[in-house]
């Protein structure tokens, strides 16, 4: 990055970093996200000084398991050191937007702390209180500035207004995170959003050698020494199924072809053998002879707000389970579709239902439909439920009931745009503006999950 942005060693990074809950396997092995493992390691806690990687957040705040105390402290430090901040970020774009929303909701308490030099009593972690006693001093001038910026209605360019020396946003905005780009541009005034690396918990894959390119143009050069990479040719019209009886031919890194799509298969030093990552990639070029890939999407994923991934089969099962609550009303779900609503922070799943009621005088009540929302959430995977319960990164699921005949109108619209009436299938996830407008114009009632779903860190991963 220093080849493209100068003087990154002359300031600090405001990165909102968090640990997540841990669990144990039935055999007693610790299971946790890779970043949680790293932040808790001695390599992070006792890392040597690096002028290019100085954080505003103290280790105590990053390692605090309480999300409110951690976010509050990291935001407070970022405000105190606002002139030293050269880049602002989080792991995912959704995480940075969650931090901005946190500032919107808590700026008055933060201003009080800066004004008085005292720490909010809600922050009870002893390690945080100890380190903040050395950082937090009364600063009435800064408190007045923050109050002036945050108390108004206009939050456009709030990032560069509060942190005026910010050179870029350090967040992932490819794949499902691309949906947050317009909101990030609004809050940052269009700051660059370099995507520097391509990695997962299983393996580090590659680097973006042109980090300042637009998110839609990002390609990653695979680092062949990070693992053994193989590629399964991918075609949406005729998906390949792996089986022992007739295994498909996997291609080596040197054999992929320009423009073609592949599913990534990895064998790692830590013991994964021919592991299907679930990412669909497209070859966009070559760096010398090393292929460069564009991340296209996660395979079979319909909905994603943060680190959650929900596919069609899981969504279908969740709807089937929720539909059980409708049987006593002689009501069933005729059709459905969905989308990930990221206009609010945090974002949430929206499910459109068209219902068939045999007896309109005995229709399901609003309370029952709210319970259907919760039943769906209880049926979704543990990553989703952790986002709802522990991380507060996902809002309550919403069901929007639409008028009868809505999905026929949806089909008519698709056919008018050239779809074949013989091959038309209801899309299980939508994001095309005209379709969204059609669906929303037919909504007769909206319902939200009345409580958080069950989730505990001891649950098996």
Which key phrases capture this entry?
461 residues; 3 domains; 8-stranded antiparallel β-sheet; 4-stranded mixed β-sheet; 30% helix; ligase; acid-amino acid ligase activity; Indole-3-acetic acid-amido synthetase GH3.1
Summarize this structure briefly.
Keywords: Ligase. This protein has 461 residues and is an alpha+beta fold.
Describe this structure as you would to a colleague:
β14 and β15 form a beta hairpin. This protein has three domains: 181 residues, no CATH class; 101 residues, no CATH class; 147 residues. With 461 residues, it is of the alpha+beta class. It is globular, with a radius of gyration of 24 Å. The protein contains 14 helices and 19 strands.
